[in-house]
Amino acid sequence: MKFVYKILLGAIIIMAVAFGLSGYIFVNSVFQTSLDREVSQALDDNNILRFAFETAALNIPVKYNVLQDIAVEQIGARLESSGKGSGRYLRLSDEAREVLYESDGFPEDRGLLQQISSETRIWQVVPWEERYYVHTGSVINALDRMLYLETLEDVTEVFDERALGFSVYRRITIAMLVCCTVVMFLICTWLTKPIRLLTRATRKMAEGDYGYRARQISNDELGQLTLDFNTMANALERTIGELQEEVRAREDFIAAFAHELKTPLTAIIGYADLLRSRKLDDEKHFLSANYIYTEGKRLESMSFRLLDIIVTKRDTIERQPVAAKKLFEYLKGMFSGNTEQKLRIAFREGTVYAEANLLKSVLLNLVDNACKASKEGDLVEVLGKRVNNAYAFCVRDHGVGIPQEELTKVTEAFYMVDKSRSRSRNGAGLGLALCVEILRLHDSELVIESTLGEGTSISFVIPDRNQEENDIDGEPGMSGVADEGGTDQEEADEKV
Question: What CATH number labels 215-311?
Fold first, then answer.
């Protein structure tokens, strides 16, 4: 059964019980009032008849010392004739409770007669011949005799009014229940509309329409529930989008990895087969072996970087204070043999809180990418300085640049903006992906700014773990580092 019908059924049952009880109490209250009035009237009539009987008994001649039974019958007949047509019956009994006179049709039941005493007046309501009567009894003391007077007053009208009251109230109750059912159905439909909207939304989402939202039509608890549901749906949609993006990235990763393996393996297998199947002169032999060696080194580099990315998926690292000078001197030594680009290193002294080997890997990858993106003779700058409770690094080139639509993708594994250029320099698109994972462990991230045809600037900030280190120079950010162009490598270690 639907929730709205459950509410409607419950409301109808409650209203039916309420109307039934209230109607029963009301009609019976009116009936009891009318019946009490008729009983009081019957008792008064009994008193009047008793007084009239005693008065009539006093008018009997004094020659009789005791009231005769025949006189009782005569007085009873006169009393009955005086109330003829009023629906009143009477019965007179002697001391032995034997009937001396009774009206025609008076019931033979003598239960009330046996209960009459001189101290109290007694009455009861009795049904007789499909009618209702108030049966009253009292004691008459006349001429040294004690007689019993019983009367019957017709009160059928009171019972008929009660029956009519119940009949009318039943019809009114049914009509009110019908009207209330219609009104309650409309109210229940309105109250449960947010639930129906939520049900529709959950059904849509179950069918795969994660962008569907329930419409909020109120500000009460159900409205808040709808708002919370939509918030949950937004979070669920984002999570599903992230999962789908992650799945897509993994599929792209696998496809790119397979492709990157295929190219060097094809060259290795081809040249190895050439060396195996043919007799080559020294020059061709050297070229073939060199191709095999070069592609093998490329596979080795790619495997090492993949292993590094896997290793950096751990959650924690041991960060130690290291002098910035050591990092830049290591970097200078690694690129001392680079004759294609001008490398300029400028830094301010300070302490960096990091895992030195991992941070060296980040700087090496960034400088290597900058060199690959630059033309021969272009300047590549590596800058460093202290900022508030952190040390900032920046690697800047003046090469080809990165299109704006590619900036969010360059940190994905195996993604290369210019694939032919990267492969010609033994690139596999893993460097920036490795940098992102390493910096994540250092609570940092890459900030990439690039203009197509003008160059790229990649910077990051390593925050201090020891907040007591107060090595701040108060200078502005990376833009405050000297930026003279044309500096050659021999001057690269000059501090600004």
Answer: 1.10.287.130
Report how far residue 141's alpha carbon sits from residue 147's, in angstroms, rounded to the nearest whole number: 6
pLDDT level of residue 495 (50, 70, 90 thresholds)? very low
Q: What is the pLDDT of residues 168-179, one digit of tens each?
A: 989 998 998 899
Q: Span 3-163: which CATH code?
A: 3.30.450.20
Single pTM value for the model:
0.47
Mean pLDDT across 191-219? 85
Q: For the chain, give every domain's residue range.
A: 3-163, 215-311, 317-491
> pLDDT band at residue 403, thresholds of 50, 70 and 90?
confident
Q: Which of 153, 129, 198 has the alpha carbon at shortest distance from 47?
A: 153
Report how far residue 127's alpha carbon sits from residue 300's, in angstroms, rounded to the nearest whole number.
115
pLDDT tens digits, residue range 108-132? 888 888 888 877 778 999 888 888 9
The CATH architecture assigned to 317-491 reads 2-Layer Sandwich (3.30)
Q: Which long-range contacts (CB under 8 A, 24 or more apart) does 483-489 make?
A: 483/381, 485/379, 486/342, 486/379, 487/342, 487/344, 487/379, 488/342, 489/332, 489/335, 489/336, 489/338, 489/342, 489/343, 489/344
Name the pLDDT band for 485 (thresholds 50, 70, 90): very low
Per-residue pLDDT tens over the stretch 234-268:
888 888 888 888 888 777 667 666 766 766 787 78
